[in-house]
Amino acid sequence: MSVVVQKYGGSSVASPEKLKEVAERVIKTQNSGYSVVVVVSAMADTTDELLSLAGKICESPERRELDMLLTVGERISMALLSMAIRNLGGKAISFTGSQAGILTNDRHVDARIIEVRPVRVQDELEKGNIVIVAGYQGMSYKREITTLGRGGSDTTAVALAAALDAEWCEICSDVDGVYSADPRVVSAAQRIPELSYDETREMAENGAKVLNSQAVEFAEKHNIAIYARATTGPLPGEDPTRDGTVVRKSPPREPGTIAGIASLKEVFLLRGQVSDLAAFYQILRRFGIDSGGLKIDSLSGGGWSVSLQFSPENLHQRPAFEAELQKCFGKEILMVESYGTVSAIGSGINAGAANLERGSRVLPLDLVLEISTSPRRITWTLPSDRIDEATRTLHSEFLE
C-alpha cells in the first residue's frame, strides 16, 4: 500500500475530544487503502507552559536540559492518540522521534535533521499498524535528545514522507490552508489554492504560521507535495486545491504577482559596531540566532557595522545572550525591541521597482525603520503597534 504522512498541530490535539476526532480521521485514511504515519505536536499551549515552568527555575535554562523538558509535550500527544485509535478498534503504536529514526546535528533547541532511518516505522506499517510519531524532536549523532525549533513537527512529517517515499504529506491545523494574510487581522484574506516552495518558505519565514520554513525546504529538496488542510475537513480528493493549499514546484502564477502578506508582530533588532567579527559570529552560533539577513559594512576607522533582525521565538536564554554581547562589545552594540515586520511576497516581485513603490506609497514612511528586499519579498520594519494596520493596508493595495 502507498504511504501517506499526516501531521496534526497543537490545536488539533488540544483535548481528549479533539484527539478522538483525529483518531477517527486517521482510521478513515487507513480504510481508504493507505499505510498511515501520523506526526503530532504537543497539545495546545503545552510547550509554552513548559517554557514558563523552566523560567521559574532559572532565567537562562541550559539548552540541553530544555530539550529534555520540551520533548515531553509531543510524547503525551503521541501516546494519547495511539490509545484513542486502539479504543476505536484500530491498530496503532507510538514512537518518539529517536525511535522513529530521526537523526539530527548536535544542536539543541534548533537542531536540523541530517538523516532519517525509519526501519522501525516500516516494520510496524507492514504489520498493519498506524504509526504515531512525536514531532519536533530527534536524536543527535551523539545520542542526545534534540528539538527542531518552533514548528519543527512539520519538518518531522516532511522528512518522514521523504524517507518513506510517501504519496503525499498532509499538514492539518485549525485553518483550511495558507491564506493571503492572517484572517484574524485581515477579514478579506483569501485561501491560496497553490503556492511554490519558494513563496511558501518566504511566507513561513516572515510570519505565516501554517507551515514551517525548514519543512518546506526539505519538501523542495525531495520534491514532495505538501497539502495544508483543516483537521475537520475531508481527505484530499482528485483536486486538493479545492479545499486546502497545495505546495509544490511550479504553481501557475504570473511573475511579479503578490501571493500574500505576512507579518511578524515582534522582532529583535541588533544594531552597532563590532571590532571582532569572529567573536560576534560565535555568539550568534552559541545562542542559535538565525543570521539570515545579517548586514555587515566596514568602517573607515576600523571595525565593522552590523545590523540584524531576528525573531525571538527560539531565544530561550535572552539574559545570557545580552550579557555575552555586553561582555564582548559593551555599549557598542544594542538589541532594540518594539518593532515588527510586514512583507509582501510573490515570485519575481522585485523584477522592477513598481511593487516596492506601491507598497511604500501607502505605508507611513516616517515610521518605517528599514526596507529590505529579495527576489520574492519586500519587507518593511515598523513599530509593533502599527503592524496589523500595515498588513491590512498592503493587503488592500495588492490583493483586494
Task: Produce a short descriptive summary.
The protein is α/β, with parallel strands linked by helices and 400 residues long. It has helices at 16-31, 46-57, 63-70, 72-87, 119-126, 152-163, 197-205, 213-222, 277-286, 318-329, 354-362, 387-399; strands spanning 3-8, 35-40, 92-95, 102-104, 113-116, 130-134, 137-140, 145-147, 168-173, 194-196, 226-230, 245-248, 260-274, 295-298, 304-310, 333-345, 370-374, 377-383. 48% of the residues are buried.
Written account of the structure:
The chain is α/β, with parallel strands linked by helices. It folds into 2 domains: 3-248, Carbamate kinase; 260-399, 2-Layer Sandwich (VC0802-like), CATH 3.30.2130.10. It has helices at 16-31, 46-57, 63-70, 72-87, 119-126, 152-163, 197-205, 213-222, 277-286, 318-329, 354-362, 387-399, and strands at residues 3-8, 35-40, 92-95, 102-104, 113-116, 130-134, 137-140, 145-147, 168-173, 194-196, 226-230, 245-248, 260-274, 295-298, 304-310, 333-345, 370-374, 377-383. The strands form 3 sheets. The protein has an 8-stranded mixed beta sheet with strand order 3-6-2-1-9-11-12-10, with helices on both faces. A hairpin with a 4-residue loop joins strand 7 (137-140) and strand 8 (145-147). The chain is globular. 48% of the residues are buried. The mean pLDDT is 93.
